[in-house]
Amino acid sequence: MRGSEARIGLPVPATKVDKRTTVGKFLTIDAGSNTIVGMITEVSGGSAEQTHPSNHKSVARIDLVGEICRNADGISQFKRGVREYPAIGDAARIVSNEELRLIYAPSDSRAICIGQLNQDPTIPAYVDVDSLLTKHFAVLGSTGVGKSSGVAVILGELMKARPNMRVLLLDGHNEYSKCFGDKANVVSARTLRLPFWLFNFEEITDVVFGGRPVVPEQAEILAELIPMAKGAYSNSRAAATRSTLKRKDSRISGFTVDTPVPYLLQDLLSLIDERMGKLENRSSRMTYNRLMLRIESIRNDPRYAFMFERANVGGDTMAALLSDLFGLESHDRPITILQLASLPVEVVDAVVCVVSRLAFDFGLWSDGTMPLLLVCEEAHRYASADHSLGFGPARRALSRIAKEGRKYGVCLGLVTQRPAELDPTIISQCSTLFAMRMANDQDQTLLRSAVSDAAADLLAFVPSLGTGEVVSFGEAVPLPTRLTFKELPERLVPRSDSANPLRDEKSNMSRFDFVRSVVDRWREATTNRSAWMDDAPAALETPQLQSEYPNEPPPEAHAAGEAHETPASAGSRRIEEARYRLLRR
């Protein structure tokens, strides 16, 4: 015996129905008035010198994890850690059902049951809610091991135990929409409204430049003119309500580029155009012109409608947006599922950053009066360990919640299939880990560095876990435990619904019609509906009017409107024609 480790001689089972003493089982050792609990981490055949000649034929190595103590009233309770170590010759036995129930008994009435123990399926596995939330948690596992179902079980039980808590789930694959029934508010790309003026400077530049390196000259223009656009909008609103009030200079409005107040995109474009008109240097004018084209391009892109739908209408919708996004006024729908898969890839990182920042800032300025849990699927995409990858502000927003969120009632749940690619600073703040099957050596190495020595040996089970099985350890569980998540009803099992609109129709279609319907949906997602496009399908069905380019009006329409074609529309048409030729190659 040494430190927290002991070796036990194992007898040969008397009959085949005797309990098997194998790796992962718990043993108890009677040491004085206390009973020490240990977990078997290794079993090996013993030599003649190591084993008793009569019945000890193998040796088990166990980690001592806790002890069952009895108080003055004779009531037994389990405590982690060992105060009195066993002596050589003390008897060991397999833990009884009653002792297991005592060890895994819920610590209070708010503990939640998420499954059952593998060692004894009749014993429920409880998790302490307070420790799980206030100290954050992570669910780790490869694709196809039941990770999403496990997350659905945990969140479902959390909402029962904490009805006043609000949950925001960042759904990277659109697979949780049916998991919580009528308790969930599902926000898709079609219903999301996240106005551009809520984005801070780093986030809006990431959107404008599409995730590519920022052009310093153009970024400086935005940093200077966005506060002026905010001041211009504020002055116009003040003038509309109090006409006698003296109009202030927008340049001294007091707003910064990060102040979350509304402004009109048209005001920003007008300021850029006005500044460009005062320049004589052609290269400088081109910098302003390229910036305007970038902004116009994303504003007219239908995929960005959730940001720019009311870009030139105005209105301070921040309070209503926060209420809807975090479900602050809804008592029947405590969880909001934000579907990210249908958003433009170029803007997903910025959206995650905005939502994470809003969650933290709301908790900060509300003094934590409304508990909020932010659950981030595919967390390694937004908080990469390699700081040269991903979007830096998104990683910092999640890191801020991980480090300081508990002070303001903002909790964090991370879900990832590649923990080794997740920022170690963030995952180190998660005090409870649920590890499912993972075969990657780097992921297993990270897990070993994140857990205590007593639990490290239990991670040897991770590569061989079955679907739905998990090894849990940390503050929210009494002991490092191998358990199986509850089985969800078939209708509540997470599954991607991205193809649902066509799934039921496919059986009644020919293969060509099915492909054509896919193409229609594909084009619709990137099409800005205009007046002539509403009539385009009918025109395209007529062979004599069919254009060479499917997204363009028929040739007669070009001829009729050629005299009225503006340079901008002509340029757009040439770009579309070039794009189509490139695709045909």
Write a short abstract of this structure.
This protein has helices at residues 97-103, 129-134, 147-161, 201-208, 216-241, 265-277, 282-300, 305-308, 318-325, 345-365, 379-382, 392-404, 424-427, 441-450, 453-456, 500-503, 511-525, 531-534, 536-541, 555-561, 567-584, and strands spanning 5-11, 26-31, 34-45, 56-70, 76-80, 92-94, 112-117, 124-127, 137-140, 166-171, 184-187, 335-339, 372-376, 410-416, 432-435, 469-474, 481-485. With 585 residues, the protein is of the alpha/beta class.
Characterise this structure.
The chain is an alpha/beta fold and 585 residues long. The protein has helices spanning 97-103, 129-134, 147-161, 201-208, 216-241, 265-277, 282-300, 305-308, 318-325, 345-365, 379-382, 392-404, 424-427, 441-450, 453-456, 500-503, 511-525, 531-534, 536-541, 555-561, 567-584; strands at 5-11, 26-31, 34-45, 56-70, 76-80, 92-94, 112-117, 124-127, 137-140, 166-171, 184-187, 335-339, 372-376, 410-416, 432-435, 469-474, 481-485. It has 21 helices and 17 strands. Strands 8-7-17-16-15-9-14-13-10-12-11 form an 11-stranded mixed beta sheet. Strands 1, 2, 3, 4, 5 and 6 form a 6-stranded antiparallel beta sheet that branches.
